[in-house]
Amino acid sequence: xxxxxxxxxxxxxxxxxxxxxxxxxxxxxxxxxxxxxxxxxxxxxxxxxxxxxxxxxxxxxxxxxxxxxxxxxxxxxxxxxxxxxxxxxxxxxxxxxxxxxxxxxxxxxxxxxxxxxxxxxxxxxxxxxxxxxxxxxxxxxxxxxxxxxxxxxxxxxxxxxxxxxxxxxxxxxxxxxxxxxxxxxxxxxxxxxxxxxxxxxxxxxxxxxxxxxxxxxxxxxxxxxxxxxxxxxxxxxxxxxxxxxxxxxxxxxxxxxxxxxxxxxxxxxxxxxxxxxxxxxxxxxx
Length: 286
Ligand SMILES: Cc1ncc(COP(=O)(O)O)c(C=O)c1O
Description:
The structure is a single chain. By secondary structure, this protein is an alpha+beta fold. It contains 9 helices and 15 strands. Residues 28, 166, 192, 195-197, 216, 218-221, 254-256 line the site of pyridoxal-5'-phosphate. Pyridoxal-5'-phosphate (PLP) binds at residues 28, 166, 192, 195-197, 216, 218-221, 254-256.
């Protein structure tokens, strides 16, 4: 189901600028036990993206109400009117996803955003991908994308509504029979995967790519950086080439729905699941 500006709705205006141009941003959040995980961080990233795109800010009191209503609606569906103990336990543990999508709104002339009245907020929910449990426990095997990300300093880090590069690269990985792949930029720097951020450890140092030219600055990446910072395991954030990543003693990927998952292979190079990955999973995976 979809909710547009708080109302259940299946259609949108054909002049909507996200439909026409990808003019907006989105975030996907994990819901567990009826609560959105790391909501403040998602909200902050949406605010930053709206600001970068010069889209008017949201009234978060109203958006939070809309999100609560969607979660409540889903919980009522699980209960189906029978408040059996089994169903109530299910509610407490159940994970699902919720997507908050913002379009600048409808109208303007061509690309010009002048005279667009107000942003449109679409909320949808989805089931927790069941294979993520195995990924988290046993690890993920990745390919390497031969297509490279362009440099886009105006939009780097933001989760805006244009995801064409990720679609091309995911298609390449589908063809290669891989579930996901390491993504580099056109300068040959490692950036992320098609759907997650990357971290790796070599001896006692942890590395992650800087994202000033491309990539999405993940909410879970931020949480991992904070967790490592609090134990004084400082992360080196910089430009790294593939050969450096492939020398790692352990590698893991992060996103808000998956949490933290070990990477056990990148193309032909195998990695053991390491202590930093398991410790962060203990702290941050719901
Ligand atoms: C390309 C890309 N990079 C990184 C991430 C991780 O972001 P987050 O931790 O906010 O889910 C995502 C999430 O979907 C993504 O699509």
